[in-house]
């Protein structure tokens, strides 16, 4: 008796996906499990003053890497939302631009310890008896090291949309919602992605200050790579620091291959040019995803939902309607808004003066301003040196996409390298050779300065239209003429964004570059960063808060 063959229904066979879907399934499931486990660990019961057990055992590093990476991606998501909202408001409303752009410049100049000294108690009070409050404080600290340069990049992208594209959007009667998704965000994506990579690296740079929080003579160390590094520095354990560097390298390589490289390859289609690029970014993961069936279908459904929202939020009138006419703001309304902003500024200044008189004293303010001037000199000098080195290098990398793919992960790793890991070399060298900390601690600050310039210049050079490159070749431009007429004007908006964010990054880096500890040995350089770090560790909140505005003034 022959066996009867059984076949699955056609619907079952077609619903199963292809082999690429099945190969992707374990990665998706493992990612979901790790995210769920890491999120569950962030909501444990906790009381202020309760010690947290940390170990320098290398076997704990994968768990610590998971916790740190989860915090950084949560902060990155919040930074993306903040950047889009900021850029939209600042580019569409002139009144908002007058306030938001200077405010953002001020906020990026405040070191993250200045934010932590104010917000950590509020977050702990928001979630009493739970670790989530401390986790939110750490995520917010990482957010303050990521958001500002992304916001400036999005603002630059929204502001520099070519006029012919704006006219086309007007002709097609795109609403504000449609214009955001169809024009402004796609045009800003290439530069924004490079700044997202810089933000992730910037988060690594300050992860020690974010996870190892010292407030009011209490040390709160959350499980993570930052706390691991802080504990290794306290115990002078060079082997543990080596293991931490290896774990960071693994983390950078993983999110480069699984997150940033696919996004860069996908975003290459948003480059504004009439001819195709010679060599585009490549990603094995993006190629894999494009070969799937079920995953592509799921992505198509998400895109369909977004496109449906574009239809819902469309203009309800055509170009001939009175409502289509752009209403020009009156002089009276603009002057009224300027008066309100000036009044608020004077009120903030009066509040600051009252706070100084009652809590700090003018003598201490004079000392803070002098220390801020010392740090300002270091920032300007390091910014000049970084521009001389990394502007030519960034242009060279940005104009060679294949080279950019090779150095991308390496640049992210060096940008993520915390200055704290250089403390052993700095302390031993300065003590042994009897060097001046005011001079020889300054190179630590450039670790958080140069990469803002490099990543922005790479982003600007990579978006230069191919036809413009051909034109420069046909005209035979070379030497200084090529830089003056072609390269420098092409990357200038990106350079300005990088210079502004590099300045803010330097002020942030001052808290770890001017106050160096290795075991029981502490070296301090005269500057605002060491002052804030010292006052925060002692729990002197009025002094640390008075130092934060001086970063903006100087």
What does this structure look like?
The protein has 554 residues and is mainly α. It has a single domain, classed as MetI-like fold, CATH 1.10.3720. The chain is 75% helix and 3% strand. The strands form 2 sheets. The protein has a two-stranded antiparallel sheet. It is globular. It starts with 9 loop residues before the first helix and ends with a helix.
Strand content: under 5%
Order of helices and strands: HHHHHHHHHEEHHHHHHHHHHHHHEEHH
Give the C-alpha Rg: 26 Å
Q: Could you report the average pLDDT, rounded to the nearest whole number?
A: 81
Biggest sheet character: 2 strands, antiparallel
Topology-level CATH name:
MetI-like fold
Helix content class: over 70%
- The CATH architecture assignment turns out to be Orthogonal Bundle
Summing up helix and strand content along with how strands pair, one would put the structural category as mainly alpha
Domain count: the total is 1
* CATH class group: Mainly Alpha
Q: What is the overall shape?
A: globular
Spatial order of strands in the largest sheet = 1-2
Distance between the first and last residues' Cα: 93 Å
State the total count of DSSP E strands.
4
The low-confidence parts are none
Q: Note the total helix count.
A: 24
CATH superfamily: MetI-like
